[in-house]
Amino acid sequence: MLIPVKEKKLMDVKLGELPSWILMRDFTPKGIAGAFQRGYYRYYNKYVNVKRGGVAGISMVLAAYVLFNYCRCYKELKHERLRKYH
């Protein structure tokens, strides 16, 4: 049975089909918001909403937040690192 390219998941798309698969995505604000919502619910149900959950779900969010802020402030941090204090 042949599955249309539009209905395939990213991991199932072959390299030659990738440009046409990307062009078939919904890039409207509603489509982007829906993609973020699906990602949030997938993450929440996999790591946070479990019977015997630990700190893994929250710690990944915290690590992503720290990494994002480090990348955002890297230019200033690099400037401070090269400054001499004497």
UniProtKB/TrEMBL annotation:
One of its GO terms (molecular function) is proton-transporting ATP synthase activity, rotational mechanism. One of its GO terms (cellular component) is proton-transporting ATP synthase complex. InterPro entries: F1F0-ATPsyn_F_prd. The keyword Disulfide bond does not apply. It is a single-pass membrane protein. It is found in: Mitochondrion inner membrane. The chain crosses the membrane at residues 53-71. It holds the Pfam family WRW. Belongs to the ATPase F chain family. Subunit f, of the mitochondrial membrane ATP synthase complex (F(1)F(0) ATP synthase or Complex V) that produces ATP from ADP in the presence of a proton gradient across the membrane which is generated by electron transport complexes of the respiratory chain. ATP synthase complex consist of a soluble F(1) head domain - the catalytic core - and a membrane F(1) domain - the membrane proton channel. These two domains are linked by a central stalk rotating inside the F(1) region and a stationary peripheral stalk. PANTHER family: ATP SYNTHASE F CHAIN, MITOCHONDRIAL-RELATED (PTHR13080), ATP SYNTHASE SUBUNIT F, MITOCHONDRIAL (PTHR13080:SF16). This is ATP synthase F(0) complex subunit f, mitochondrial.
